Amino acid sequence: MNLNFDLKNNTRVNAILDEISSIGHISTTNDAFAKKLFSHKEILIDFLNSILQREGDNLISDLVYTDTEQHAENSYEKISRLDICCQLISGEQIDIEVQVSNDLAWIGRSLFYWSKLYAGSLVKGDSYSELKPVICINLMKFNIFKGETQKQPHTTAKICNIKDGEPITNLLELHFLELQKFKKKSLSEMSRAEKWLAYFSGKLSKREESAMLHDNILGKAINIRNEFMKDPDNYAAYLNREMEILDYKSMMKQERSEGRAEGREEGRVEGRAEGRAEGRIEERLDNIKNLMINKKFTVEEALSALGIPEENWDSIKSKIK
Predict the structure, then answer these.
(1) In 103, 145, 250, 296, which residue has its Cα 20 to 30 A from 303's Cα atom?
(2) Residues in Cβ contact with 118 at an 8 Å cutoff, skipping those fewer than 6 apart
(3) What b/e sequence results for 260-277 when a residue is b if at least 16 CB atoms lie within 10 Å of its CB, and e otherwise?
(4) CB 305 within 8 Å of CB 287
């Protein structure tokens, strides 16, 4: 068991364990758990067929797990680490990302992940006609679409003709699953995809879960969740990840608070505020290193997550090195 913190008298760990006890199960959007769950091929295939609405000849029958680390071609490129990545028999690549903390740049990040997989599928000598579709599925514990017409939990994005809305290619496909928007209905009225959304949103009652245990796949998913914390390594990974999420949310809250205070002060004395802002950047080094070590962020991802202006990045990078 590898814990990055001391369990003794740790109030935050106790709060996490109390939440599990009160809910009756762990969070299914903890990415340590999600990676474990989707490591079961039959579960991942069922999830993909449900969410992508694959039927008949398009039904996914098999897949191959692929490398989740997308290496940079040179020192100027960003390294990206994906949550779950696989390739279908048809050659289509699928990336699944589980996100619990709101990130205003999430659509851009999803496009970046898509671009890395898409560009990496073609090697020297290949024809562009050999390019295969890349599908990105984002499983999110928050909402990013606020419009009145976007109340459904599942949003699909493709490259379309603006005039008639018809897709012009199937090479790019993005899915956003906003779990907060999922509205519970009776189990008998749920589609297969809705049952998966109910599972990940934690909105199933114990009675409904008992009924779902008779389903070979969904029942197995429930049992994996219930047994997950009994393994010491899983236990450590889950708590480590939950602690990282708490730390991240705490830092973002502090950043917003400091930003508001900075804005008020700038309105009074702009020059003095700039000096304090530079001082705060120095103080954030520990937060940057924490994200890089515990969350495996690159330095650029950490700087972006903390909202540090890009004009300050070079000086901070030199200090970190």
Answers:
(1) 145
(2) 93, 131, 134, 171, 172
(3) eebeeeeeeeeeebeeeb
(4) no
Q: Which two tokens stand for residue 296?
A: 């495996």
What single string gives the DSSP state of each residue in 5-28? Answer: S--TT-HHHHHHHHHHHHHTS--T
Residue 233 burial (CB count, 10 A): 11
Question: Which residue spans within the chain are E strands per DSSP?
Answer: 63-65, 69-70, 80-81, 84-88, 93-99, 134-140, 154-158, 172-178
Residues 6 or more apart from 117 whose CB is under 8 A from it?
70, 85, 93, 95, 134
Q: What share of the chain is helix, strand, coil (3-state, %, to 5)?
A: 55, 10, 35
How far CA 116 is from CA of 70, 111, 146, in Å, comes to: 7, 9, 28
CB 93 within 8 A of CB 119: no
Token couple for 268: 């009074």
Per-residue model confidence as pLDDT tens digits over 178-188: 999 999 899 99
Furthest C-alpha separation in the chain: 67
State pTM to two decimals.
0.74
Specify the DSSP class assigned to residue 53: T
| Distance, CA of 231 to CA of 283 (rounded, Å) | 38
Structure tokens at 134: 């890349």
Candidates 144, 134, 131; CA nearest to 102 is: 144
Identify the CA nearest to 98 among candidates 182, 155, 16, 37. Answer: 37
**Euclidean distance between CA atoms 294 and 303, whole angstroms:** 15
Q: From CA 104, how far away is CA 156, in angstroms rounded?
A: 18
The string over 114-126, giving b where at least 16 C-beta atoms fall within 10 Å of a residue's C-beta and e elsewhere, is bebbbeebeeeee
Say what the pLDDT of residue 183 is: 92
pLDDT at 77: 43
As given in the structure block, the two tokens for residue 173 are: 């496909």
Tokens of 110: 């999803």
107-154 pLDDT, tens per residue? 898 999 999 999 888 877 788 888 999 999 999 999 999 887 789 999
